[in-house]
Write a structure and sequence with these properties.
Blueprint lengths: L4 E6 L3 H15 L4 E8 L4 E2 L2 E2 H8 L1 E2 L3 E5 L4 E4 L2 H5 L4 E4 L6 H8 L8 E4 L4 E3 L5 E3 H9 L3 E5 L4 H5 L4 E6 L3 H11 L4 E6 L2 H23 L4 H22 L11 H10 L4 H12 L3 H8 L7 H14 L7 H11 L6 H8 L3 E3 L4 E3 L1
Parallel strand pairs: 1-2, 1-8, 2-7, 8-9, 9-12, 13-14
Antiparallel strand pairs: 3-4, 5-6, 10-11, 12-13, 15-16
Helix pairs in contact: 4-5, 8-9, 8-10, 8-11, 8-13, 8-14, 11-12, 13-14, 14-15
Subunit structure: Homodimer.
InterPro entries: 6-PGluconate_DH-like_C_sf, 6PGD_dom2, G3P_DH_NAD-dep, G3P_DH_NAD-dep_C, G3P_DH_NAD-dep_euk, G3P_DH_NAD-dep_N, NAD(P)-bd_dom_sf
GO molecular function: glycerol-3-phosphate dehydrogenase (NAD+) activity; NAD binding; protein homodimerization activity
Length: 359
């Protein structure tokens, strides 16, 4: 690659703004990257001024990260096509539910050799009803490869410069070093693996497990019980990958995308917060989502539903008792007490589609 690469960011929430700080600083000091980074911003009016105007004049995203300054080479646009049309690397950091429509808007309007990177954790339905990882949805819609960046990286802590880690799943060898150099900083360690599906699934399934941890917090159960939820959830994550995405490497589960993201999410995550409030208030999840996280998307109940559909199609609900129990608590078909019962009576073996491994 002799030409400088153009980078754009699609999204302007907490995590998009945080990662824009790293990306902006890195491209400004790179010999292989264009120094300007376009960022797509959903236009809003804040105190009589357009958000894009505020960002481009003050370099502060006052809506989502008001205490942090963006590099001046981050340029906000309110049109996603204008943002992305010249980009060689498209970084997606929008809510999962917006990905499908965003990609439809961009179809045929991005470079045919562009490379996408998804920072989004979750499954989503395609138009034909198939349940896909977000990176797979982007690849299917835009007809370009898509890597992922996920891990134990709470946006506010990363923005403060506290040490954090992330995992990049990238199958394209020529982009491994490029993406690592694009996202890393002195306080943000990035590890790259080509086990991309496993990277993404680990950070997706932790949405369910952290919701379960929040249920335990709401019921004021002890830390031992919460530890049991984390252990069982990690075990079922191993099983799920083995059944639905075989061929992944065990080591990937112990990267930031796996064990560390899981543990952190079970103590500091909006899914955990939502579940705790669900137990303590008795209010419907739909109402609590609006009250507690109006500008974000808590994915615990959504992911639990989609995973349950996948398990049910294969007749595997009983082989994944924690995932199944959390889903049924979400929809009201199981009482909260069933959570501890599930931990108490779950079988201690790992299901495999062809055989069973005894622990």
């Amino acid at each position: 690659m002799t030409d400088r690469l153009n980078v754009c960011i699609i999204g302007s929430g907490n995590w998009a703004t945080t990662i824009a700080r790293n990306v902006g600083n890195n491209v400004a000091n790179s010999q292989s990257m264009e120094p300007k980074v376009n960022m797509y911003v959903y236009e809003e009016v804040i105190q009589g001024r357009r958000l894009t105007e505020i960002i481009n004049t003050t370099h502060v995203n006052v809506k989502y990260m008001p205490d942090f300054v963006l590099p001046p080479n981050i340029v906000a646009f309110d049109d996603v096509v204008t943002t992305a049309r010249d980009a060689d690397i498209l970084i997606f950091a929008i809510p999962a539910s917006f990905v499908n429509s965003c990609c439809k808007t961009l179809l045929g309007k991005v470079k045919p050799l562009a490379h996408a990177v998804s920072l989004i954790k979750g499954f989503e339905r395609s138009d034909d009803g198939q349940i896909l990882l977000i990176s797979h949805l982007i690849m299917r819609q835009l007809k370009i490869p898509c890597s992922v960046l996920v891990g134990c990286n709470l946006a506010h802590e990363v923005a403060l410069g506290n040490f954090a880690e992330g995992t990049i799943g990238c199958r394209d060898q020529k982009y491994i070093r490029i993406l690592q150099d694009l996202f890393k900083s002195s306080s943000f360690r990035v590890v790259v693996t080509d086990d991309a599906d496993c990277v993404e699934i680990c950070s997706t399934l932790r949405n369910i497990i952290s919701f379960g941890a929040g249920l335990a917090d709401g019921m004021e159960l002890n830390e031992n019980t919460k530890g049991g939820i984390i252990r069982r959830g990690f075990l079922e994550t191993l099983q799920f990958v083995d059944v639905f995405y075989p061929g992944s490497r065990l080591a990937t589960f112990f990267e930031s995308c796996g064990l560390s993201d899981l543990v952190t999410s079970c103590y500091a995550n909006r899914n955990r917060k939502l579940a705790e409030a669900f137990v303590k208030t008795g209010q419907p999840l739909s109402e609590l989502e609006t009250l507690l996280v109006p500008i974000q998307e808590p994915l615990g109940p959504v992911t639990a539903e989609l995973v349950n559909i996948m398990l049910k199609k294969k007749g595997l609900e009983e082989k994944f008792p924690l995932f199944t129990t959390i889903y049924r608590i979400c929809v009201g078909s199981y009482p909260l007490s069933r959570l501890v019962e599930t931990l108490r009576y779950a079988r201690e073996d790992i299901y495999h589609p062809n055989h069973i491994f005894q622990l």
